[in-house]
Amino acid sequence: MAPALAQTRAPPPDAARLPSACTRPDWPPEAKRYDLEGTTVLDYRIKEWRIADVKVRRGSGWPILDAAAVRGLQACKLKTDAAQPRESAVRTLDYVWATAGGPSARPQLRPDSCVASPPFHGFVPLDRTPTSSDGVLVRFLTNGRGEPFNIRLEGRITDNELAEHIRQYVQSCRFVAANAPGPKTDAVYGRVLLAAPGK
Question: Smallest Cα–Cα separation from 146: which of 191, 120, 113?
Fold first, then answer.
């Protein structure tokens, strides 16, 4: 697995007013283990020489990364000098969560390996669409036999029985190591498609 880096992009006028400490938020260990990547776009203001009103304008697709970006920006300490405005309009900052050397190749789903189950229409690897009424975003690790474990469901799932069925369904799928050059990972993400009620 390639080393994880958190890069920061911002418009030049804003970047010049941000201390270097703002450019390297802590990469959550769990996100690093699952090789989660993406870009978190934040809005914020400067009020009384402090970072304030931090909001996620566009998420990375992974709440764990977005929360880390917010914490990193909120932790910034600005100098109280004349060069810093006491208050500013809304500014935008991008946190780019990426691994050195590019994305790692992920295990591939073995065709037709997921055991058919009435509540589900299938599993779509590498689909980062957020959890909604028609599907649930999941991430997990795979062992040497291609079996999923440490399955995490993203988004709000209030039906505990459904959540357990989703985990069991994902555990029935089998994966093979990626046949590609470069860095590889044992982490997979994708979307479990839900069948419409009554079907």
Answer: 113
